[in-house]
Every structure is written in C-alpha cells, then in structure tokens.
Specification:
The structure is a homodimer.
Chain A: H1 6-21, H2 32-35, H3 39-51, E1 55-58, E2 64-67, H4 76-84, H5 107-123, H6 127-130
Antiparallel strand pairs in A: 1-2
Helix pairs in contact in A: 1-3, 1-4
The complex binds FE2/S2 (inorganic) cluster (2 copies).
The structure holds a DNA duplex.
DNA sequence: CGTTAATGATACTCAAATAGTATCATTAAT
DNA sequence: ATTAATGATACTATTTGAGTATCATTAACG
C-alpha cells in the first residue's frame, strides 16, 4: 500500500533540480530527462505546482518555471496535501463516512494521532534538505 | 491515499469480536452482521487469517473460527504484513525498482526510517487494546 | 447414510484510483 | 509569421482494491 504517489515523487525531483540550478526559468523540456518522466505528464504536475503557489511560470518562448518559494521552506507535507490531498490511514478515519462501528471506536483516535505524527515527519523534510 | 486496506479493517473488527466473546468457535455467519460485511468476503479474510496463523478453524457443522493467539499479542503491524504485504511509502523505496535517480538519493533513507517508525506504532496496538 | 452447516481453495468480475496521453488555447520572443 | 513555451481540460489505459461465485471437503445431526 503506497503512501506517496507519483506526482509527489516527480514533483520532488523537479523542485530539487530547480533548487540546484536556480535559473530564472527552466522549461519542462529541460527537466524531463533528469526527472525521468514524459514531457506531458511532468507538465501537468508543474501546472499543479504553479496553481498551488510553489513555482512561478513564464509563458511563451524562453519561458519556463522557477521556484516561487525558498526551497528551505517547501515541505514534503505541503506537497502531499497539494498533489494528493493528504494521507488517510484508513477509510474510517476520514470525513463523515465513519464505519457505523462505533461511537466507542478505540482504533480511530490512535490512527488519527499516527497520521499526525506522519505528517510532522514529512513536514520536517524540505526541498533544500534533498538538494 | 490510504494506508490500511479493507481486509485489515474487517480483520480487526472480527478479531476484536472474537476476543470479546471468546467462544470455542464462531462461524462467519455469526460475525458478518456485526463486522458489517458480506459473508463471502469476510470468509475470504478469515481464511487468510487462518493461513497466517492468527486463528484456528474447525470445519463442518458446528465449526467456525477461534483465536489461535493471545489477543494481547496480536499486533496491527502483523495484520498489515499478512493482509496487505506491509506498507511502502513510495514506489522507489521498495524492491529493486529504484528510480534510477540515484545512488545518492537523499529521500530514500528518510522514507525508510519513517516507514520503520510507522510500523513500530502499529506494533504498539494489539487486538486486546481494541477490545 | 443423507442432509445440512460449516470451512478450504481458487477463479472470476466489478469498481475505483492512479498514471499517463492528447488536444486546443494562450502568450511572448525571434 | 513562426516557434517555443505554459494553461486548461478531456480522454484513455493500467493497476490495484473490493467483492462474488463456485466447487471441494469435512463433520455433526437425525
Ligand atoms: S473502525 Fe470505523 S469507527 Fe473505528
Ligand atoms: S526517489 Fe528514487 S531513489 Fe530516491
């Protein structure tokens, strides 16, 4: 059972790459080889990062992407929220779909706190750490 | 992104139920209502638990399942291994399919240790705790 | 004995989530 | 005008998860 999806995986690689280069603008074409993913797919991910405010983009010839934030402050936990809507340990623990069993469920609170710790650990890792 | 699958979820409920009752044998028909799952599906899960040594089974009329181990020593981490083959934080961290990037990957070791901690936390929760 | 109520094993189908592609629109440098 | 880039979005394919169905085996009950 996987916890981090491909979007996050590729996003990390791309952001690390940008943090190392620190060019004014890197186009997708200039990243896809090193990130090891197809152009269109990486583009889709970069667009998500743009919408979520992690990167700036410049359209048109000579354009591309650049980091919008200090890499030392881009945390894995944030990427996880933005790119895959967080983490849920089980179905039950989320939203309103409590499993019927029970008001007195002893499992749910434990899972909730584990989830919290997991996110803290992810928050402790920044793009800078990985660059 | 989910971490615990339905098998684990239902298995926990069934085991907790059995730990509370402590009958010599509980048939699937006697659990499915409270576990809130279809008979055939629960049966499949119980069979996995049997193969993995968590429960005993008795065939034939009057048969059913019973705990094979002290509920205070059946740990969530074990159920996770037996029923869903463990947890992997990302694709990369598993098996031989390292992502090419890199011998010098800074992310992988961190994820590995997070995974370890997660499993420790799951190991700290027993069926008895939940009963 | 035969019927019934149970599990064992396994194959199969259905549904949902992930992963990836394709297309058209927009923008700006040359 | 052409080219090289992103924005938005619809679409397809693959994989994984969830759930069913079937047949075989076993043992109590009458
Ligand atoms: S497992 Fe659903 S509320 Fe506890
Ligand atoms: S992300 Fe694949 S080896 Fe680090």
């Amino acid at each position: 059972m996987k916890v981090l999806n491909k979007d996050v995986d590729y996003a990390v690689r791309a952001l690390v790459l940008m943090a190392r280069n620190d060019k004014p603008a890197t186009p997708v074409a200039g990243m896809r080889a090193e990130v090891r993913v197809s152009g269109p797919f990486l583009r889709k991910i970069m667009q998500k990062l743009q919408r979520a405010g992690f990167v700036h983009s410049v359209k048109g010839r000579g354009g591309g992407f650049s980091l919008a934030r200090d890499p030392g402050n881009i945390r894995l936990s944030e990427l996880v929220s933005a790119l895959q809507g967080g983490i849920k340990l089980n179905d039950c623990a989320s939203e309103g779909k409590l499993c019927g069993l029970h008001s007195a469920c002893k499992l749910r609170p434990r899972l909730a706190s584990m989830e919290g710790r997991l996110l803290e650990e992810l928050a402790a890792i920044t793009v800078k750490d990985l660059a």
